[in-house]
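Data card: per-record layout.
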Amino acid sequence: VMIGTSRGLNKFLDEKIAAIGDNASLRDDAILSLAPASDGSLWVGMYSTGLVNWKDGVVREQATQSSPLYGTQVRALLEDKKGNLWVGTSQGLYRKRGAELVRYGEANGLPRDFILSLHESRSGRIWVGTANGLGYVENGKASSIDISSYQSAQDVFGFSEDTDGTLWLATDRAVLRLRNGKISAVG
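The structure for this 187-residue chain is written out next.
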């Protein structure tokens, strides 16, 4: 079990916790998000040094200072069914495909650039929780859904999806349920 803490990445194995000390970022930076990759590696999002791909004790890829992912808070990570990596940062959402980065943000239709959570629905829609509402990306286009009328909800911290496609949102004000295009609040 990999554990992200405010003091780096740790591994829990054989009833022992050990720090991952082979990389300064993984050892010293606050870990904000973790996501398994389809190739068995682990994507690691950090507070100030961006994004790392780690496998079997080796850093295979790391955001450099010239990358827009470096110096941002990588708060949410998701590898979708197509193999794209979605990287939610404090300065926008990025879709990473190999070396290509495509940015989505407020200017493209999301409610805010500060991303808190990500979820891929069964339909393939990428749901985006921000620090000011709900958004999604579908067919390369970003859109927003205003949730402020539901007990003044703003921050979307997490998602869960039922087998019937009902989407549950953990927000700062209430649990919201999105079913058949309609939102309701459980306050």
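Known properties of this structure: The helical segments are 24-28. The chain has a mean pLDDT of 95.

See the next section for split statistics.
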